[in-house]
Each structure stands twice: as structure tokens, then as C-alpha cells.
Amino acid sequence: MVCSAKATSGIKLFPSQCQTAKIGIKILWWAAAISGLFVAMSAPIAHAQLVPVPARPGIGTGDTRRQVGVEDLPWSAIGRVQTELGGRCTGFLIAPAVVETAAHCLWIAKTGHYIQPRDVHFLRAYNRGQFASHARVARFLIPPGYDPRREALTAAYDRATLFLDAPAGTPTQSLTVAQNLPAPGDGVMLGGYEQDFREVVTSDMACHVMAIVADGNGQPMISHNCDATRGSSGAPLLVYRNGNWIVTGVQVLANFGRGGAAAPLMPVTSEKTQDDRR
User: Any idea where the Peptidase S1 domain is (predicted)?
Assistant: First the structure.
């Protein structure tokens, strides 16, 4: 079977047996998908079956998302990442002036460069035109292992650290980062500003880690079954530990059906700035 789908905006597609789509800018076909199988070459082209991109990749037949308030953690740490070119993703505070999001949200395919930091804004606790705080991005870091031109191989590093020009919150309004990967079966939740509810945060609060999978270079990613679609790129995948919700990954990929995959959010070293990566 040969899978085919057009590029989409707001979320990248993650192929699992030719059935996953990318939450950001274009379709991502992996030689090693969640299932460990890639069957695109198993049938003659003459008998190819075209698989259209669903209107809401990442959403199952029974949508379990619901709107959540942004007054308290963990949702008060979440905000909308907006660019002056019209791009919108989700991001979240890990320190008063530091935000995490998906790296593909900052890539401009037409120019082959990342957007200028000053053209990126963070609106914490955005809700129907209101927000708790606003700051511009002064600079950002992207792991050197991520290459937007080779997304199939480097999706595990599809994350960006944004350094704001002013604090957007306090330490108590920031999320804690996990120091290790979650285990299959761990309860998680995921929420962000998604295409069909872009003015509010919607969340699947009763989903699970399905497996630790690998990108095309063999780097770990977190497969989950949370309902989330376009616009959720950059949202935190939250795991409950010791009485608190902490961040274990950054949402970057969506299945054709329910679920997707997150890039692990581990301590990062030796990363380059956006200016170094032009």
C-alpha cells in the first residue's frame, strides 16, 4: 500500500503503518514507525491506495477532549506561541522567562530559515482574546540534532527553547521538567490551543503512554493515545508523579486516528542558537 497526503499546517503527521500525519508543516513518513513496519513499498504503484489526511489528525472516533480553565497549574503555564507571519502553536513556561515549544513552529519552509526571534510572541494563559501576560522572544535554542529538512530522521529533537525579553510568569507558575522517560502505561494528559477550539485550551485528561518508539535515527520518542490535533504542536505531555503534574515531552506528531508522539523534554546541552543555525 502506498500512502499519500498533502502538507498541512499546524500539526505534523506521524505514520504508523501508513496511518499517521504530521503536527506541523508537512507529512512525515518514517521507515520505522510505531508499529515497526513501513509497508509503502509492498504493493505495485498501479494498485496504490491513497490515504487522505483527516480533517483532525490525532482525534479518535470518540473525542475525549474538554475545555479547561487557565487559572491554575498546569494550564496556567500554557500559552499561545504566535508569529508575526500568522503561525500559531502551543508553548509552556519552564521558568519565568523560558518557554518550550515545537521547533517546526519556527521554521519557514519558503525561505529555508527559522523565523527571527523578535517576530515570535508568547501569550501566557490565553483565553478568548485575554491573557495573563505577554512577552516577545529575545532568542531561541534548537537542538543541533533537529533538521527540518530531514524531519523523518530527526523528529525526536523537534523542540525549541524560547528565551523571552521579560518574565511571563513566576517560578510557581512554571512547569517542572521530568528527568527521565515515562513508562508504557503511565497516565498522561495533553492540552493546547487546537484548530477547532483555538481560543481556549482543550485537553485529553485521561490518556496513556503507549510505548517508547524511535525516530528515523533511533532516538526515543513517546507514543501516546491522547486526543490532540493541529495547533497542539508544542503542548506539554504531562505525567503525574509524586502528587504533581510534570512535563515529560513536547507534542510534535499526530496519528491519523487517536494519539500521536512527543519529543522527550530532557535536559539539553551543547545546543546552538537560532542565529547559529541559519
Answer: 59-278
Q: How far is CA 4 from CA 44, 171, 186, in A?
A: 14, 45, 33
33 is written with which cell numbers?
514507525
Name the domain count of the chain: 2
**Is residue 29 situated within a structural domain?**
no
Per the structure block, which three cell numbers stand in for 92? Answer: 509552556
Q: Specify the pTM.
A: 0.78
Residue 52: inside a domain, yes or no? no
Which amino acid type is present at position 254? A
Q: List pLDDT tens digits, range 206-222.
A: 899 999 999 999 999 99
Do both 197 and 235 map to the same domain?
Answer: yes
- Inter-residue contact 252 to 262 (CB < 8 Å): yes
User: What is the distance between the alpha carbons of residues 54 and 33, in angstroms, rounded to a whole number?
Assistant: 19
Q: Which residues contact 58 (CB under 8 A, 6 or more apart)?
A: 11, 21, 23, 226, 227, 228, 229, 230, 232, 254, 255, 258, 259, 260
pLDDT digits (tens, 9 = 90+) for 85-94: 988 999 999 9
